[in-house]
Amino acid sequence: MNAAADGAGSPKTAPVLFPGHRWLRYIAYVLVSLAALGLSLSGTDEMLSAYKLGVFQSVLAGFAQGVALVLALRRPVPAWALSLTATAFTALTVRAAMDPLPTMNPLPGSTPGPDWPWSTTEVVVQAVVLLFVALRVPTRKALAALAATALTTFVIQGLVGAQHYSSTGMVALAVCAVAVLIGTALRGRSEARTQLVEQVTITAEERNRRTLLEERSRIARELHDVVAHHMSVISIQAQVAPLLVENPSEELKENLAGIRQNALEALAELRRVLGVLRSENPEYPDDPYALGGPGTGVAPDAPQPTLDRLDALIENTRAAGLDVRGDVRGEVRPLAPGVELSAYRIVQEALSNALRHAPGSTVAVEIAHDPDGLRLFVTNSRPQQAAPPSPGAGHGLLGMRERAAMLGGHLTAARTFQGGFAVVAFLPRDGVALPDEPEGPHGPHDPDGPDGVDGPDAPDSPAAPEIIFPTGDDTP
Q: 375 in helix, strand or coil?
């Protein structure tokens, strides 16, 4: 009955008091059981003294209300049905034991009899049970239970009637109505809070999803520029190739012409896509920390930057108020265009974050060229002054991780023990994950560990560049 009333698929779905604190649940059960025992004894005594029922009938009527009160903790609808049925049965039993209905007006001075059809215990239990019903089931079903209680009271008191009794019907209905009103209000408040929490959760998830999609769109926009450049080169080479061969055959000319035509068509499609992707400035021009100075590649129509323009980026950051130290290690080798672009953007975003959140700090930028790829280290010391509110869009770390993962690399960003922040990334040279690439941060770019330790004792996390900051931080 209860499962059908509240829409639950099984009685196992009934709510549990204090789900996170079992001992509080047991205490609540004990207190309610003690209250039910007291009401049962009180009801039994009232039936014996006021209604003049037998011992068995009095005990049955009194303890039926106590059982209903305990049952309401888990099954309020059956508890309401039990309480109402016991009340109606008791009222009719008492009515049969009373004087028959008078055939004429009662004698003057006749005294009223006991409370009927609701005893005090029955009113209390019915009100509490209806409160649980209103808390558990929808409002319309709680109102239906209240209407059934009112109808039962009207039939017993109004239609059947009795002689020499104190009417308790109106008082009982008023108390039960207040209980249903309170329970409905509490249930509505709980549902509103639940919906608010769900809405907040959905909003946060939607915001994260939108941020991820915006960052991926930004990355795709930049990589489309790289692809467009290569398609242009293919088109030009296909046009020039016949001129480099003496007496080229017609088949060669046709194949090269087909290659050039396909390249031009692909380039035209790329231009259309770029026109859509560049409809908005991806660099957030309202952000004063966007490093939008010369040489940073912020303008929508500017060519995509590479590591050759890293010096201009560092100079621009110094002009913004940070002490930046750059270092390039290892033999510089050719990199895939997407790797160079992503490496530049990761360093740019890390410097922008340092400007936002660590004003007055010292920043160390290290680019390490390894045979298997490129390692990036951007660390800053603790900020020397409070960071002002930042209007950034919150895409920084997300975008950096997306770029590294897209190329088969990885990126780690964490606070340092000295209060600064470190960003460590590894990008495969060709933008493809290495077959034996371990999960998690890559090891240090030196074959040995940071302290010259070789073999299984070498640490797995990358070693940050050993730079002594003038602020007293010996390590990043």
A: strand
Two structure tokens written together for 353: 């974050």
- Residue 162 one-letter amino acid: A
Token pair 């290690």 in the structure block, residue: 329
Helices (H), 113-249: 120-136, 139-153, 169-240
- Using one digit for the tens of pLDDT, what is the confidence trace for 7-37? 444 434 344 555 556 777 788 888 989 999 9
In terms of C-beta density within 10 A (0-12 exposed, 13-18 middle, 19 or more buried), how is residue 277 classed? middle
Residue 364 bridge partners (DSSP): 325, 379
Q: Are 371 and 329 in contact (CB under 8 A)?
A: no
The distance of Cα 229 from the centroid of its chain, to the nearest Å, equals: 41
C-alpha–C-alpha distance, residues 125 and 213, integer Å: 57
Strand, coil or helix: what is 354? helix
Q: In which residue are the tokens 């930049």 written?
A: 222
Taking the CB of residue 271, how many other CB atoms lie within 10 A of it? Answer: 12
pTM of this structure: 0.47
What contacts 228, CB < 8 A, 6 or more positions away? 267, 270, 271, 274
SS3 206: helix
Do 416 and 364 contact (CB within 8 A), yes or no? Answer: no
Which residues partner with 414 through β-bridges? 422
Residues 6+ apart with CB under 8 A from 102: 163
DSSP 8-class letter at 468: -
Answer for the pair 408, 374: CB distance below 8 angstroms, yes or no: no
What is the DSSP secondary structure assignment for residue 300, as one 8-state letter? T
Beta-bridged to residue 278, according to DSSP, are none
Q: Can you tell me whether residue 322 is helix, strand or coil?
A: coil
Compute the average pLDDT of residues 28-50. Answer: 89
Give, for 447, the enclosing helix (H) or strand (E): none
Q: What is the dihedral of CA 72, 75, 76, 77, to 10 degrees?
A: -140
Residues 205, 209: Cα–Cα separation, whole Å: 6
pLDDT in tens, 379-398: 999 888 877 765 554 567 88
Report the 10 Å Cβ neighbour count for 288: 15
Q: Minimal CA–CA distance to 242: which of 266, 259, 230?
A: 259
* DSSP state string for 14-46: S--SSTT-HHHHHHHHHHHHHHHHHHHHHHHHH
pLDDT tens across 213-231, in order?
A: 777 777 766 666 667 667 7
